[in-house]
């Protein structure tokens, strides 16, 4: 009898564990004192702004560190730590009046001197420890703080995107970071900046476990409008399905990003799903290196035009993105507001026209219906990075239609590091590939996206090998045009130019989709998602019903 | 004396294996196209300065030979280097990941060893009966299931009952000991069960096979003829002799515990070493990869060494 009990013991223990643990899921945590629980498939790679690369890390900094300006809901610059600003000396000097009587979370005063120190340190070590921020302090010679609420920034030459750069520049507490300079600033990168982080945003980061959680609590000493919620947490998932199930089980209150396949099911389950056009665009890349040795027919603008007409963008949107995307037409997405050139139209899907263009250009069909260019088949490998989930299905759609115009495509899926290495090739010669697919996430200010096709970006951001001196001149001009209306005209010209040059065939502008339990309101989604680095609206206004 | 020779030989072999593995780890990851700088510098505002600064910082501007010498020197000082991605010591990152992995994988592995051995023995002893058919078919079924698919199915089935991701409810601040333990237990069930079910199939099949072999031996027939109880025959005569292949399997399984379970850790968002390795591969984080694989190599080699020494004890023929 005793032995039988012993034999049954494991089963009893298992049942007990199950019984006790099963009750410990979602429902209890939902009542955890007004903490808004958000699931994310992304995550924070570092809490050190000199090290971090992930979007969620920058969004975190937006909530815990002061920033001079932020975007308002109309994507115009609005005061944040800087309450007002003006430029002088022909745009070479910018003066910001900053928030008075502000404090860091450890009670020390937050002044313009902290801002000046952060800018100067970023300039001083831009070739080394602070290289991560070098792009944001380009053209600045120095910054100074004549008093606690005045910041003066001096430029070598009048810059066109001063506020756009400062909108992403986080001000650090000098009294904390100055202790970690080390030799030539190297210590700045080694400082883990672990939670609780000394900051001065609407929230304090009180807990951070890599790959798991970032937990924020309302900052009682915050100098701006206080958040309505007591705190929020960002739980990182490495599996979308598990994240969606966690929301459905009320173990989470919201999702930062909803996979297209889950939109319908979450709506049906009673969640509020917000679907707004985003800043991410998928693209079909044509190696446009003017010195390209093989398959030079791909430099022919008529060939590129024919390819563009062979892309069924509506089908891509409906099949790949299940309707959560818009057809794309420019390197600057429409979601950037007035920076997008509204005169550009989405290229029509017209296989007959594509065939006519190729016929007229002299590319006759050979065996198997594949066209010939300079005696060789128009058959190309298309490099695709494995971490962009939409690409395999999109490729299948494009491959089928390209076959109908006599062009054979073969997918070559590589992890992103390998893909970029193959595309840029040895010594950044861009000789090792013909076609590729990838995506870009734009910023609101167009400078960054426009830069990726400049000659300077060979080996850097360039994934098309495009290099054109005329375009580069336009790029420099927009960079040095402080008048934003004039700058916009140049930006539109550049888009129109690229529209015809076609280093990229733009496929889809993905929507930014988030979901929230209906017991919460005020969770504001944007083109960059609800947890973004545009402003602090997304999580300062959220509250329980 | 023969025994000491055997032990010394095994230890020497283990040391050489670790050295060769260290070298292969260094070469292998650097043969893969792409680099950490490529990925880490693909962020807005990245400049040529950033790329150069990262190369210098990571020592990637030096020749492969120089990098290898530096790596060996660091290893001799017990320094695994600094993670390219996190800029933190690899030993610290690995320690955290390992601490997270061990409970989940150990629980799953122990579950599979205990249940798998039991069902394997039963299947062999009850050969030709529906019990064997049921045991073998369920073992084959679980063994052939893709791990990630089984994990997803369990998530769907137990969604709302058990947590579907993470190691604990991280939204709780400063939970008490028992609250934390209960929370951990609720999170560990599904990933451990997934691992346990997949490995259970493997154990059942191997134990059954080993048992069938020994159950056909003459000494088992003799034991039966002597009128020994079935359980005594299994425990004292059959299972003991079937232990050799089982020992190897157990040793290998335990050795691989430190590798975590990549697919399971991804499916259940478990912040363990398997996920760390996966991310390090994507980021070409050489120090993390070298550290993780060194840890795995040492673990597997030591567990194999223990298995060899156990063989020495279990199988007298080795010393003859």
Task: Characterize the structure shown.
The complex is a heterodimer of chains A (545) and B (320). With 545 residues, chain A is an alpha+beta fold. In chain A, helix 11 (313-320) runs antiparallel to helix 13 (391-404) and helix 16 packs antiparallel against helix 17 (484-501). With 320 residues, chain B is mainly α. The termini of chain B are close together. Classes of the chains: A alpha+beta (545), B mainly alpha (320). At the A-B interface, helix 1, strand 10, strand 12, helix 8 and helix 14 of A face helix 2, helix 3, helix 7, helix 8 and helix 11 of B.
List keywords for this structure.
heterodimer; A: about 550 residues; alpha+beta; 4-stranded antiparallel beta sheet; about 30% helix; about 25% strand; globular; B: mainly alpha
Fraction of residues in β-strands of chain A: 15-25%
Q: What distance lies between the first and last C-alpha atoms of chain B, to the nearest angstrom?
A: 11 Å
Globular, elongated, flat, extended or rod-shaped: what is the shape of chain A? Answer: globular
Order of helices and strands of chain B: HHHHHHHHHHHHH
Q: Structural class of the helix and strand makeup of chain A? A: alpha+beta
Annotation field: number of helices of chain A: 18
Mean of the pLDDT scores of chain B? 84
Question: Which structural category do the helix and sheet elements of chain B fall into?
Answer: mainly alpha
Number of strands of chain B: 0
Spans where pLDDT lies below 50 across 5 or more residues of chain A:
1-33
Number of strands of chain A: 23
Approximate helicity band of chain B: over 70%
Average of pLDDT of chain A? 89
């Amino acid at each position: 009898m005793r032995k039988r009990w012993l034999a049954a013991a494991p089963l009893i223990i298992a049942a007990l564990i199950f019984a006790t643990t099963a009750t410990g899921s979602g429902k209890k945590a939902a009542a955890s004192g007004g903490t808004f629980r958000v699931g994310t498939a992304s995550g924070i790679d570092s809490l050190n702004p000199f090290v971090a690369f992930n979007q969620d890390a920058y969004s975190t900094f937006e909530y815990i560190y002061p920033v001079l300006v932020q975007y308002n809901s109309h994507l115009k610059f609005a005061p944040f730590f800087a309450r007002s600003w003006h430029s002088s000396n022909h745009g070479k000097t910018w003066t910001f009046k900053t928030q008075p009587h502000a404090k860091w979370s450890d009670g020390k005063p937050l002044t313009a001197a902290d801002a000046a120190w952060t800018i100067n340190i970023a300039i001083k070590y831009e070739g080394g420890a602070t290289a991560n921020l070098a792009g944001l302090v380009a053209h600045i010679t120095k910054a100074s703080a004549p008093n606690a609420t005045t910041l003066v920034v001096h430029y070598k030459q009048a810059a066109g995107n001063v506020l756009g750069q400062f909108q992403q520049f986080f001000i650090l507490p000098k009294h904390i970071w100055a202790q970690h300079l080390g030799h030539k600033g190297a210590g700045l990168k080694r400082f883990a900046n672990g939670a609780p982080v000394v900051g001065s945003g609407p929230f304090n980061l009180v807990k951070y476990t890599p790959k798991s959680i970032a937990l924020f609590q309302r900052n009682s000493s915050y100098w701006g409008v206080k958040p309505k919620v007591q705190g929020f947490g960002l739980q990182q998932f490495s599996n979308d399905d598990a994240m969606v199930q966690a929301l459905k089980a009320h173990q989470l209150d919201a999702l930062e990003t909803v996979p297209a396949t889950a939109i319908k099911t979450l709506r049906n389950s009673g969640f509020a799903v917000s679907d707004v056009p985003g800043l991410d665009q998928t693209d079909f890349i044509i190696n446009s290196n003017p010195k390209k040795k093989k398959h030079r027919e791909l430099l022919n603008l008529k060939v590129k035009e024919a390819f563009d007409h062979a892309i069924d963008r509506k089908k891509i949107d409906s099949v790949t993105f299940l309707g959560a995307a818009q057809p794309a037409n420019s390197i600057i997405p429409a979601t950037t507001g007035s920076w997008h050139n509204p005169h550009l139209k989405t290229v029509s899907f017209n296989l007959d026209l594509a065939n006519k263009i190729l016929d007229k250009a002299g590319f006759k069909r050979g065996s198997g219906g594949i066209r010939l260019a300079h005696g060789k088949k128009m058959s190309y490998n298309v490099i695709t990075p494995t971490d962009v989930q939409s690409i395999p299905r999109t490729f299948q759609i494009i491959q089928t239609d390209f076959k109908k115009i006599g062009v054979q495509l073969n997918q070559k899926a590589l992890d992103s590091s390998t893909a970029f290495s193959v595309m840029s090739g040895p010594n950044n010669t861009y000789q090792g590939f013909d076609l590729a697919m990838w995506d870009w996430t734009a910023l609101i200010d167009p400078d960054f996206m426009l830069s990726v096709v400049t000659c300077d970006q060979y080996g850097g951001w360039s994934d098309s090998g495009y290099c054109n001196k005329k375009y580069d001149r336009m790029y420099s001009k927009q960079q040095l045009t402080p008048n934003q209306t004039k700058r916009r005209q140049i930006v539109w010209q550049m888009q129109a130019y690229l529209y015809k040059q076609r280093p990229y065939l733009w496929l889809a502008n993905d929507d930014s989709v988030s979901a929230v339990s209906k017991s919460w309101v005020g969770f504001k989604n944007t083109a960059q998602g609800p947890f973004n680095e545009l402003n602090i609206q997304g999580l300062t206004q959220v509250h329980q019903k | 004396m023969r025994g000491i020779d055997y032990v010394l030989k095994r230890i020497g072999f283990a040391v050489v294996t670790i050295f060769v593995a260290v070298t292969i780890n260094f070469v292998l990851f650097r043969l893969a196209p792409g680099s950490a700088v490529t990925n880490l510098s693909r962020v807005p505002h990245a400049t040529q300065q950033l790329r150069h600064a990262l190369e210098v910082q990571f020592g990637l501007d030096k020749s492969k030979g120089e990098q290898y010498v530096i790596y060996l020197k660091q290893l001799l000082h017990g320094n695994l280097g600094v993670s390219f991605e996190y800029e933190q010591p690899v030993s610290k990152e690995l320690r955290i990941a390992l601490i997270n992995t061990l409970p989940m994988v150990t629980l799953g592995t122990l579950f599979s060893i205990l249940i798998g051995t039991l069902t394997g023995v039963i299947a062999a002893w009850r050969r030709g009966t529906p019990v064997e058919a049921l045991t073998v078919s369920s073992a084959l079924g679980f063994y052939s299931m893709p791990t990630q698919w089984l994990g997803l199915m369990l998530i769907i089935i137990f969604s709302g009952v058990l947590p579907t991701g993470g190691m604990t409810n991280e939204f709780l601040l400063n939970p008490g000991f028992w609250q934390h333990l209960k929370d951990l237990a609720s999170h560990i069930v599904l990933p451990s069960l997934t691992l346990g079910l997949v490995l259970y199939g493997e154990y059942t099949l191997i134990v059954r096979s080993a048992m069938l072999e020994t159950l056909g031996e003459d000494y088992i027939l003799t034991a039966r003829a002597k009128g020994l109880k079935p359980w005594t025959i299994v425990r004292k005569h059959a299972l003991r002799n079937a232990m050799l292949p089982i020992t190897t399997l157990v040793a290998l399984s335990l050795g691989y515990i430190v590798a975590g379970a990549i697919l399971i850790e991804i499916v259940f968002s478990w912040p363990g070493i398997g996920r760390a390795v996966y991310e390090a591969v994507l980021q070409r984080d050489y120090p993390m990869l070298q550290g993780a694989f060194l840890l795995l190599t040492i673990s597997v080699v030591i567990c194999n060494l223990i298995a060899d020494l156990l063989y020495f004890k279990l199988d007298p023929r080795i010393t003859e």
